[in-house]
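Subject: complex prediction, re-run

Hi both,

The earlier run crashed halfway through, so I resubmitted it with identical inputs.
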Amino acid sequence: MKTCKQLKELHTEYICDLLDDERMNLMEEHLQHCPSCVHAVGALKNVLCLTGEAGTISIPEPILNNLEVKVYKRLVIESSQSAPVSFLSRIFGVIRSTGNWRIAAACCILILSVPVASIVYYQSRSVVAPLSSNDIQSPHERVEQYKRQQYQADLDNALETVYLRDDDWASVGAFQKMKEQGKGHLWESFPDERLHPRGLAPNGGI
Amino acid sequence: MDTMVEDEILVAHFQAGGQDAFDELMKRYKHKIFSYLLRSVKNFEDAEELTIEVFVKVYRALEDWRPQARFSTWLYRIAYNLSIDHHRSKSRRMTYSLDDEELPLDEPMANDLRSNPEWQVEEKDRHRIIRDAVDRLSPNQKAVFMLNRYDGLQLNEIAEVLGIAEGTVKIHLHRAMKKLKTTLEPLWEKNEI
Ligand SMILES: [Zn+2]
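This time it finished cleanly. Structure:
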């Protein structure tokens, strides 16, 4: 049988629900006849309640909306920077560490030949794919895909704005039909008359 | 994608070439990781920047990742390490000690409030007082308390995130609760929070 003092050490675990069944039962039994422990446990519960309430944070939705594409963009930037930079820093490291200027001259010739080789190399692979699997898109391709999705969403919004302006609810059916037809099209490839179907001038429309 | 698919299965899917699996992992965790980092760095811009950094690191390392621990635990560990680096680089003057030395309680908000009984504490101020109390915990106590109470991590998961023993995590949580009780109890007894 644990004493009141021993059980006091378990108050945090009790209210955080971290006790095993045996100790949980002991605690509950003890709480039935120990006002001091009841008070202490109540105070800890209050701590949890207050800190939980104060710790709730609401994050505006737009902040996280584009996080995925920001991650891919960062990967594109870092991939295109890291490879040539690390190569050149290695060359300069050799020059610094040896202090031998013959080697330095040889390195310079090598460096001059590097741009030609690297242009050929990087044009063949627009970014360095961080993963080896052929099926995984490069971050660059992923960014392009997100852009296409954004174009499509912008197009949908634009069409909706044109058709539903002035509460022209009668045209909802026509709008839905056109939206269906427009699936898979990109903003740039859409003919103007479909964006301005009621003869609205481009600058007076959307 | 099925939301009930386990993270580790999504990772395997990504490793086999399924790009969408990584997007799904980001969707699942961006809110949690952002919230965690926001609590840690207290600044939207820095929190967003660090969240992006977490997922960039994950993307680069995911090919070689093996499920020895839960994916979510690994993610929090990366976020935790980045937040520590952030604090270190942001404030070189302040030694951000990883051991569990107590931070000085030199300017308790409580005394200021008690000295002014007529002051009506508004909701925002009330929350600020409570958050200040959490901020005044030692770094390890605060990390354990927040990961457990706000992010819902189990003690063994917290131990992995922080790289300490589970027993130590329990001690930090116990001390954190004790200290918060000591700080906040006089305030609620006087209806000041
Ligand atoms: Zn007792």
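Residues A 4, 7, 30, 34, 36-37 surround zinc ion (CB under 6 Å).

- K.
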